[in-house]
Design goal:
mainly alpha
Length: 323
C-alpha cells in the first residue's frame, strides 16, 4: 500500500504540473499551484473521491484562511485515515505554511494512494455536487466554472459580418495589434517569472531539509562523544577536534589522525613498573641460596647439620635470623 512507500519511490518523482493537472481533472477545480492545497480541503475531497461517503464534507472548509480552520480540515482528514487504518503521518504544521516542497510531497503521496485504490478512477463522482455542502464550496465551484465558461465562449462560432464591418475590424485590429502583442509578452514574462520563483522555492526547501538532516546527525555524534564512559578515549578527542573546528583547515584532520595513531602505539614500562615486576623473583632466589647452604653442610660432613651449626647459615646470605 501507499502508506508504506519510501522516499525513493517513483511517486515522489511526479512533477508539479502533473500533480496540479490530476487534482483539477479529478475534482473539477482550477488551481494553478500546488501550494493552493495547503488548507487541506483538497486532500479531504480527494479521499472522498476514492472512498465516497467516508469524508463528512459538511465539516470541510474550502474557505479556510487562518491556521485554525486549516487545522480543522486536517483533523477531518486524520479521522478518515484512522477509520481506514492508514498509518500515514501528516505534518500539519509544515503543510499549513504553504511551502511548495512540503505540499508537493504530500500530494505526491496522496496521488500514489489514490492510484492504488481502484486504479485511481473515481467512478460516477460529482465533485461539484459534493463540494456544494462544504463551507465555501459554492464560491469554489463558481471560480472553477468561470474559466471553463470563458474558454467555451472563446471557442464558439463567430457571427458573420458585412464586408464593411470586416474592414473596420481589420483596421482596428491592425492598430491594436502592437498593444496586444505587448500585453501577451508581458503576461508570458510574468508567468515565466512565477515558474522560476516556484522552482527556486522548491530548491531552497530541499536544501533546508538536507541541511537539517545532516545537522541532526552531527548532533547525535556530539552527544555520543560526551558519554562519560568513552569521552577519555583518543578517538573521541579526534572526532571532537574535527567537529569543533571553525575553519576548513587540513591541519585539523592531521592532528586528529595523530591522536588516533597515539592510541595504537604500545605503552613503555616505567622503571618503577620494571622493579615491581622483578620483586616476586627475589624470594625465590633467596630460597635457592638457603637450599644451597644446607646442601653444602651435607656434602662436607656427610650428615644433617646440627642445631649448633645453625649459626653459620647467616654467612650464606640466608634470610634466617640468628638468635
Amino acid at each position: 500500500m501507499a502508506t508504506t512507500i519510501g522516499i525513493m519511490d517513483s511517486a515522489y518523482f511526479v512533477g508539479r504540473n502533473e500533480i496540479v493537472a490530476w487534482i483539477n481533472s479529478t475534482l473539477q477545480l482550477s488551481i494553478s499551484k500546488v501550494e493552493e492545497t495547503a488548507p487541506g480541503a483538497v486532500a479531504c475531497q480527494l479521499m472522498d473521491a476514492v472512498h465516497p461517503g467516508m469524508v463528512p464534507m459538511h465539516k470541510v472548509k474550502f474557505d479556510a484562511k487562518n491556521e485554525y480552520d486549516m487545522i480543522q480540515n486536517y483533523k477531518v482528514l486524520q479521522d478518515v485515515f484512522n477509520k481506514l487504518k492508514i498509518t500515514k503521518h501528516v505534518e500539519v504544521n509544515k503543510l499549513i505554511k504553504g511551502r511548495p516542497l512540503d505540499n508537493l510531497e504530500f500530494m505526491q503521496w496522496l496521488k500514489r494512494y489514490c492510484d492504488s485504490v481502484n486504479g485511481g478512477a473515481a467512478t460516477n463522482y460529482n465533485a461539484m455536487e459534493r463540494r456544494e455542502i462544504s463551507k465555501g464550496g459554492k464560491e469554489t465551484n463558481k471560480k472553477a466554472a468561470a474559466p471553463s465558461q470563458a474558454n467555451g465562449k472563446s471557442s464558439g462560432p463567430a457571427p458573420r459580418a458585412h464586408a464593411s464591418q470586416n474592414t473596420r475590424r481589420n483596421d482596428a485590429h491592425s492598430t491594436s495589434a502592437p498593444q496586444r502583442n505587448v500585453k501577451s509578452s508581458s503576461n508570458s514574462g510574468a508567468h515565466a517569472h512565477d515558474e522560476q520563483i516556484t522552482e527556486l522555492k522548491v530548491f531552497i526547501d530541499s536544501l533546508e531539509k538536507e541541511r537539517d538532516f545532516y545537522f541532526s546527525k552531527l548532533r547525535d555524534i556530539e552527544i555520543l562523544c560526551q558519554t562519560p564512559e568513552i569521552d577519555h578515549l583518543p578517538i573521541v578527542g579526534a572526532i571532537q577536534k574535527i567537529l569543533y573546528s571553525t575553519e576548513a583547515d587540513p591541519a585539523v584532520v592531521a592532528e586528529a589522525q595523530a591522536l588516533v595513531m597515539q592510541q595504537n602505539q604500545p605503552l613503555a614500562l616505567s622503571p618503577i613498573d620494571e622493579i615491581s615486576e622483578e620483586k616476586p623473583n627475589r624470594p625465590e632466589a633467596q630460597k635457592r641460596k638457603s637450599i644451597d647452604c644446607f646442601e653444602a653442610f651435607d656434602m662436607g660432613s656427610g650428615s644433617r647439620p646440627r642445631l649448633s651449626d645453625i649459626s653459620d647459615v647467616q654467612y650464606c646470605d640466608s634470610p634466617l635470623i640468628n638468635y
